[in-house]
Write a structure and sequence with these properties.
five-stranded mixed sheet; single chain; alpha+beta; 420 residues; Cytochrome Bc1 Complex, Chain A, domain 1; 11 strands; 2 domains
């Protein structure tokens, strides 16, 4: 059973004792990411995430940080999204103090040594170049920019070469000071740990002051761009394609129906897209439908890697599946299959204490409440065939759809005609 506690300075601690494991995950989440940036500092949240690993007070450099965790066979990593960033260490529970010590030192005492910043510029430029050379990733970001336009929600987390080459120690200090405050963070502990022990350790290691967060994220602004097709002409062996459009916020009443719709369309190997576009026509190797939801909007899309010579056929095949699910209600049995798939996947994921900590911490940080797995499953089971039909009619309405493509093509009009 989870326990939630809040310190006077606003730091929230959630502990979840999991009986089935001898491991524990310490995860610290902060409200930061590309939504908290403006044009000149796009990418700072992600660069900052790298810099936290470069040494602080007790663990003075990258080697000491990694040796501390490697020395107990732990795992550690971090991630930066659009609305939050996370830092976690997963260890055998007897090494919990080491995990707490390393994460708290990193996040409270980071030095942002200018020499280390300069070295890391090269690392992050190579990460940037890797994505540029991996159209399967890049097309997702390009598509977000097409849907959300040129505003923080449409920017990717890696940021711009200009920022990567020019960001300073002072900018890091200011950004960290503005957002890494106790009232804008959640510490989630999941695994072999009691609530009492979690609180004791949080008090011992996370001695934050009373700093308050300085600003909120940039709200999504409706825009009137008429662009419906993004085409990046590039000589590739495979064309990469995304088709979809704007959807609903995470707290929307149709949220779980939207998640199930994405599973039915392209969430697994027996989904509609997989069966019709890959199995029946042999057009692609990968194809996947996903729904990403933020605090105030969302994006629903199908992405695929397509034979270059058959791109028109693939665009039509995906649009035909959208049209079909809008026009006809799905059979009850297909909905039940998707519900059971989602339940099974969730149970498998939650075998992992890191996934468990992430689920509890994310809902608390973004929405100020905890969503337990059993509550989510209850919501998922309530979804009806009518709900799926309503959501499909809204999100997959022809006027809502846009197309993003990376491949050896030079004529946008060729793809615009499929949307008209």
């Amino acid at each position: 059973m989870h326990h939630k506690n809040q310190f006077k300075n606003g730091l929230r601690i959630i502990t979840e004792k999991l009986e089935s494991t001898k491991a524990v995950t310490v995860l610290l989440l902060a409200g930061a990411g590309s939504r908290y940036e403006h044009k000149k500092i796009n990418g700072i949240s992600h660069f900052l995430e790298h810099m936290f690993f470069k040494g602080a007070k007790k663990y003075k450099n990258a080697r000491e940080v990694s040796e501390a965790i490697d020395g107990v066979g732990g795992e550690f990593n971090a991630f930066t999204g659009k609305e939050y960033a996370g830092y976690y260490v997963k260890v055998a529970s007897e090494n919990i103090e080491k995990a707490m010590d390393v994460i708290s030192d990193m996040l409270m005492n980071a030095k942002f040594d200018p020499k280390e910043i300069d070295k890391e510029r090269g690392v992050i430029m190579e990460e940037y170049n890797m994505y540029q050379d991996t159209p399967m990733y890049q097309i997702g970001w390009d598509f977000e920019k097409l849907v959300f336009d040129d505003q923080p929600l449409g920017w990717d987390q890696v940021g711009t070469p200009e920022l990567i080459k020019s960001v300073t120690q002072k900018q890091f200090q200011d950004y960290k000071g503005a957002l890494y405050s106790p009232d804008n963070m959640v510490l989630a502990l999941a695994g072999d740990i009691s609530d009492k022990k979690g609180i004791e350790l949080a008090e011992k290691y996370f001695k934050f002051g009373d700093e308050k967060k300085k600003f909120e994220f940039n709200p999504y602004k409706k825009h009137d761009t008429k662009e419906r097709v993004y085409l990046h002409s590039k000589k590739t062996e495979q064309a990469h394609l995304v088709i979809g459009g704007q959807s609903n916020p995470e707290t929307h009443k149709n949220h779980w129906a939207e998640k199930l719709l994405s599973i039915i369309l392209g969430g697994n190997m027996s989904s509609r897209m997989f069966m019709s576009v890959r199995e029946a026509r042999g057009l692609c190797y990968y194809i996947h439908t996903s729904s990403d939801n933020f605090k105030d909007t969302g994006i629903f899309s199908t992405g695929a890697g397509i034979q270059v010579s058959r791109i028109d056929e693939a665009v039509q095949a995906i649009l035909a599946e959208y049209e079909k699910i809008r026009a006809e209600k799905i059979p009850q049995a297909e909905l039940e299959k998707a519900i059971n798939f989602m339940k099974g996947k969730m149970i498998l994921n939650l075998e992992d204490s890191e996934e468990y900590a992430h689920l509890l911490g994310k809902y608390e940080l973004l929405h100020g409440k905890i969503m337990r797995p059993e509550e989510i499953l209850k919501e998922v089971e309530k979804v009806t065939v009518e709900d799926i039909h309503r959501v499909a009619s809204q999100i997959l309405a022809p006027e809502n759809l846009k197309i993003g493509i990376i491949g050896p093509y030079d004529e946008k009009g060729r793809f615009e005609k499929f949307l008209n």
